[in-house]
Automatic annotation (TrEMBL):
Residues 16-76 form the HTH tetR-type domain. PROSITE patterns: HTH_TETR_2 (PS50977). It comes from the Bacteria. It comes from Actinomadura napierensis. SUPFAM superfamilies: Homeodomain-like (SSF46689). This is HTH tetR-type domain-containing protein. Pfam families: TetR_N (PF00440). Keywords: DNA-binding, Transcription, Transcription regulation. Residues 39-58 bind DNA.
Length: 212
């Protein structure tokens, strides 16, 4: 009986491992020193890889940090509950919203790199807008559109016609609220997330009731 041997990483696997090492090092340094304090020399020292390896994957620091945001966002979104409503799902808007937020808020204390770096760049005023900032804003727009579509799926035809902007307004409230919870976790313990979810669900329910 033959035993299968573990395969050694191929050239492509090794390249990807090097790329992830660089991204991880850059994310750690950006968290510690900010955008301006992140340099290629610090990244090479932290990752243990030469500058030539960094420039093989990334054209400059701006491109590198944009890829940190993208890589972190893709990992985060893959683990997040989808803002997609199954037509067979009989739960109310409040029940569905509570279910999604109960899962999505659990990952906030872990401080996903794209959130940390993205918020940092949003607060910086730069002559030339960083590529990472542009990508972060684009991801927020995409997430907001997904949440708005989810809210719209719960609205009747009349409400959609009377208040076409309501779904996006509620999506922005959800994003702004989770932004606040994320920042609270970075400052100190943010309390019981279930209390936070109860408040957000109540705000959304009242807004929909007032609009109806």
């Amino acid at each position: 009986m033959s035993t299968a041997r573990p395969t050694s990483p191929g050239p492509g696997d090794e390249r990807e491992m090097s790329r992830v090492r660089i991204l991880t090092a850059a994310a750690e340094i950006a968290a510690e020193h900010g955008y301006e304090g992140t340099t290629i020399s610090k990244v090479t020292k932290r990752s243990g890889l030469p500058a030539s390896s960094v420039y093989w994957f990334f054209r400059d620091k701006d491109h590198l940090l944009a890829e940190v945001v993208r890589h972190s966002f893709e990992q985060w979104i893959a683990a997040e509950p989808r803002w997609e409503r199954d037509p067979r799902d009989g739960r109310s808007l409040a029940e569905g919203l509570r279910s999604i937020l109960s899962r999505s808020t659990r990952g906030l204390p872990g401080a996903p790199d794209f959130l940390r770096i993205g918020h940092m760049l949003l607060l910086e005023s730069r002559e030339v807008e960083a590529e990472a900032r542009q990508y972060f804003l684009a991801t927020r727009d995409a997430v907001a559109s997904s949440i708005a579509a989810w809210f719209t799926s719960h609205f009747g035809t009349g409400l959609r016609a009377r208040r076409p902007e309501l779904a996006m307004d509620l999506a922005r409230i959800v994003i702004a609220s989770t932004d606040g919870l994320f920042l609270a976790h970075q400052i100190d313990e943010a309390g019981d997330p279930d209390d936070f979810i109860t408040i957000i669900v109540a705000i959304v329910e009242q807004a929909v009731a007032d609009a109806g």
